[in-house]
Amino acid sequence: MMAWIAGCRSCAAAWSNACLLRSAALALSFSLIAVLLAGCWDRTEINDLAIVLAAGIDSPGEGKDYLLSAQVFVPRQSSGGKAGGSSETTPGGVTVVKSATGSNLAEAMIRLQTKISRHVFWGHCETVVIGENAAKRGLRQYLDFLLRYAQFREHAYVYMSEPPAREILALLPPLERSSAEALREMGNLKLGAKVTILDLAKSIEGVGQSAVLSRLRILPPEQGRDKLATMPYMRGIALFRKDAYIRTVTEPISIGVLIMLNQLENYVFTVKLGDSKGFVAIKPLQIRTTMTPRIQKGVWSMHVQVETKGDIVLNTTDLALLAPDQVKAIERLWKEKMTGIIQASIDLAQKKLKTDFYGYAAAFRRHYPKQWNASRSRWESIYPDVETSLQVKVLIMRSGKSESPQGVPEDTIIRK
Amino acid sequence: MTKSLRRSGKPLPLRRHLQEHTEPAAVHPLSSHLQDNVAALHAIYAEGSDVTFHAFQINQKIEAVLIFRSELCDTALLDRQILGPLITGIPDNLPLNADTLHRIVPVSSSKLVGTLTEASLNISSGHPILIVEGSSSALTFGLPKSEHRNVEEPTAESTLRGPREGFTESLTVNISLLRKRMKNPNFKMKSISIGQYTHTTVRLAYLEGVTDPAIVAEAMRRLSAIETDGILESEYIEEWISDQPKSPFPQMLSTERPDVVCANLLEGRFALLIDGTPFALVAPVTLFSMLQSPEDYYQHFMMSIFIRWLRYLFYFLSLVLPSAYVAITTYHQEMIPTVLLLSVAKAREEIPFPALIEALIMEIAFEALREAGVRLPKQVGAAVSIVGALIIGQAATTAGIVSAPMVIIVAITGIASFMIPRYSAGLASRLLRFPIMLLAGTLGLTGMMLGMMLIVIHLCGLRSFGVPYLSPVTPTSSSVWRDVFWRSPPGANRNQSSNHRSNRKPGMPIIARQANKR
């Protein structure tokens, strides 16, 4: 009997020991689950995301609410037949545009969320379009928001649009998946100024206190097509002093601006030859602008050197373009043309708008840090009087596939 | 009460019981009376055994009994070499006892045994026993019938270039395959018999002067500490003598290629050859040696380097690819390139499950499919691949159960795990994939890294016979790196054996493990 009790007691002890172990293991696994579950709540499936491809900022005017628009991707499985068959129809609803108003952008963003059944996800917003009216109110608030709110990418491209930004975002371009992608591709092709959010903020906050943005317009849709089935395109350059929009320049001055910013690609210069009826079109292969600041005896001057090389792509004159003299003559005319354009854009910045778009201040600060520090407060008065000397060097590399003009009788061609 | 009784109750000591029963004559020497010996052996082989007791007279004078298992002995040789001469051809003037017969029977391997245990062991191994009236020792002859498979191409480790011989189940054949390649007399072997019932012969092969003697001694110690009923495959031994049998990473390399064994011997490792299985074990190994294929050395070194890097990359992928997909698509969508995200979003739109569940479904289905393919006969195996490709690949996507990107991820993971040349090394990444996937699904990339860190910590602590598992990367011995991250052509890498011996630095302790404490 005693043995039985003793055995029972020892069994009970073993029991409680096992119990303790088991409850410890249980507690441990529960705490592990708790840790893991905490992470679990953050989970967002891709199905639950409203992926924003482009953001648009509009404002009806001073003192009124801001309108924030988001171009949201509609993840619908495109069935094979539809995509392959009819390219004539509009690409129905790959994106939708949702907008919300607010007294500031953050408020508008939160209100936008209330209109969309999924998490609005700005992490892939690679294009920001700012409407002209919104731009006039100053870019400061937008930049602060875009660079502070964690989801935005600072390398998103920024454009200014002549029509409201919302209309640009609403377009469904036939060629691309979305107008955001179209604008991104155009930026990569350098069809205008390629400016990211970070570039924009840096150029406004930098010593130059100015910025340029490409200006967008909407290509009129083809007849009989849906009015949304068209593309935005870049026309002109919008100029900003500090963070405020001042004016837009168009060709040819916008070309000069782009040359000064070292950003011109995809352009053709047309040169009219004085004595003959035709013209010659030259496509530059490379344009390089270098700025050399100089301070001598208290006189601030800037030497701008533009070097360019190009090919002739069109010739409607009777010149055979083989004789060096002919090429020299064309080069001279091209040089004159470029000098004129660039000089006009320099004059516009220095004399008319008195705003340093081309980075004079940065160049002076880099080359003459002492003088710059001594006179940085007077820069606004110094800048318009900086003597700018412009030197353009041009070189025609090739005359194209044909040496002599095509489509004219042999005997009319001028060979020397 | 009953419950606690059962808890404290000890199991019946079955093993000891059996042991006593089967070895009744553990210390009994043979007697000089023939009838006593025969009676004792008859008692051992009383029922259900098929031992032949063949009684005859030597030179028609002295009683003798030949005891053998007819299915294990070469009976034709037995008749010709033993019975024939003994019955008729012994000169009369010789004293007829076991000692004399030992010298005159024309069999090259004959031996005298003095105890009943030895006698019965020899009978079980297929060696006939001759007991002569008046002799207290018996004579055994090495005339086993060698029933074994021919040397064939190793099926689990095929190479395009390289020897096509593989080990067989016969230990003697396997040893001959090794001896054929390694002609230096320093190629030594130690023998040990393991298993109370199977008495499996295990040979430890090493190169004297190349292999660290401390490692050989430790291996012999661990082998002799094994207490088990039987050894049927190399894995039995591996689990007994590995440093950490609970680790999913194999600490011994199993191979069925004699050339691989020889290469490892040259690099200062030892090999275990086990009777009855075509798989030899090699140790000590490191993670990087598990990721090497014999073909790395049989083809141009540039190709080998490329393949080796590809293998490292895919080994990593086979471990983390599904987890990375789950983590990035559910927590870090901003990391995916925009266009790719849009495609993934399109593909995932109709899928009812979260990415984690989707990944688990697909990975488990894949593992099941793979297992089914391994077990099935070859003719049915084709059906499995059709079912796998069509049902899991095609139909599941069209039905909207899993998304196409997930199928791609699982497919790449599958290919990646097939790229690992050692089947046993791939098991770890196959298995650990699942916990990492769960961590990735609950904590995102943080969880994935957490899992990776745990694995690396585990690997850092792992040792194979005293050699750190991650050497030569950590602890670093950069002189060996040219055979880890690189495969230098011969000349640059001439002195192979010495540079591998440096895996274990002289003072490094071998972590002794009590093999009998399991």
Automatic annotation (TrEMBL), chain A:
Main location (coarse class): membrane
Pfam families noted in UniProt: Spore_GerAC, Spore_GerAC_N
Sequence similarity: Belongs to the GerABKC lipoprotein family.
Compartments it resides in: Membrane
Keyword 4Fe-4S annotated: no
NCBIfam families: spore_ger_x_C
Record-linked PANTHER family: SPORE GERMINATION PROTEIN B3 (PTHR35789)
Domain called Spore germination GerAC-like C-terminal: residue spans: 236-400
Domain Spore germination protein N-terminal: 42-217
InterPro entries: GerAC_N (IPR057336), Spore_GerAC-like (IPR008844), Spore_GerAC-like_C (IPR046953), Spore_GerAC_C_sf (IPR038501)
Annotated signal sequence range: none
Keywords: Germination, Lipoprotein, Membrane, Palmitate, Signal
Protein's name in the database: Ger(X)C family spore germination protein
UniProt topology in membrane: Lipid-anchor
Gene3D superfamilies the UniProt entry points to: Nutrient germinant receptor protein C, domain 1, Nutrient germinant receptor protein C, domain 3
From TrEMBL, chain B:
Region entry Disordered, spans: 491-518
Transmembrane residue ranges: 270-291, 312-331, 407-424, 436-459
InterPro entries linked: Spore_Ger (IPR004995), UPF0353/GerABKA_families (IPR050768)
Keyword Transmembrane: yes
Pfam families named in the record: GerA
Record keywords, A-Z: Membrane, Transmembrane, Transmembrane helix
Similarity annotation: Belongs to the GerABKA family.
Stated name of the protein: Spore germination protein
